[in-house]
Amino acid sequence: MAGEVIVDALPYIDHGYDDVGVRESALAMVEEECRRYRPTKNYLDHLPLPASSPFETPLMVNEFERIQNRLPMETLSMKRYELPPPPSGKLSEVSAWQESIENSMAQLEHQWVRSLNLELMLDYGTEAWKSYLEVFTAMQAKAQLQLQQLKKDIQDVNWQRKQAQTQAGERLRSLEAHWVLLVSKNYEIETECVELEKLVHAARQQLQSIAPPPSANDTAPTPEHTNGFDQDDLAESNGSSSSNPDQPGEDAADADGDSKEEDKPEAQEESSNEST
């Protein structure tokens, strides 16, 4: 059948994989295959490019453009965490001091938010952590169950494969034994046939050496003339046919004797009547 996979290895019943030289031979075959196989550089050219645009965000688009243009990655800006004073040339400007004040107020607000988060974590972090651990434990238990089921399925598949290969091995061994038996019997039969042919050939040579040469006056009927009968059979048939003509005479004589015996009493009665 087209597309059918022919399995020519039964690991559960085959032996010899750990013998010396088997691994080296397998590696040599792999290296030979690698030397003969020359993959093309762009072996996926016949496939269309994946459509990734629906999943790209603006940040990803900018990052892809930066990578395509081979530009360095921007470093993390720490400016908002700094409190620089106005530049030396703008110390007399009110707007410069106003920007510095706004920056300091933003820094204070950020620190206040951080402290608030820390307070909330102290109050509710333990319970949130416990809840997270419970969810994580449930997820872990579910994953363990799935892992155990997967291992069980793998074990069942391996057991079925082992059972199938064991049955196939027993069948192969029985067929091999039967094949060896048939081959041995055929060999014995061929040997006996050769011996019989030798005996027949020797007997024919012996008969040819013992039989006298045929004379010119020998007119013995051939099997074609006797319709397949031998001379002895013809002689016996001739002897039986020569003896058969006497039998009708005997039967006729017996019949005449009986008729004569039946006529005697009638003759005696006629003579007695005449005397009276």
UniProtKB/TrEMBL annotation:
- The gene name reads Dyak\GE10530
Which Pfam families does the record associate with it?
BCAS2
**Where mainly located?**
nucleus
Question: Is the keyword Nucleus in the record?
Answer: yes
Provide this UniProt record's keywords sorted from A to Z. Answer: Coiled coil, mRNA processing, mRNA splicing, Nucleus, Spliceosome
Species this protein is from = Drosophila yakuba (Fruit fly)
The identity of this protein, by name, is: Pre-mRNA-splicing factor SPF27
Q: Where in the cell is it found?
A: Nucleus
- Keyword Transmembrane part of the UniProt annotation: no
Q: What is the similarity comment for this entry? A: Belongs to the SPF27 family.
Entry superkingdom: Eukaryota
- Gene Ontology CC terms: catalytic step 2 spliceosome; precatalytic spliceosome; Prp19 complex
- Give start-end of the signal peptide: none
- For the region Disordered, give the residue spans: 210-276
Q: Which PANTHER family match?
A: BCAS2 PROTEIN (PTHR13296), PRE-MRNA-SPLICING FACTOR SPF27 (PTHR13296:SF0)
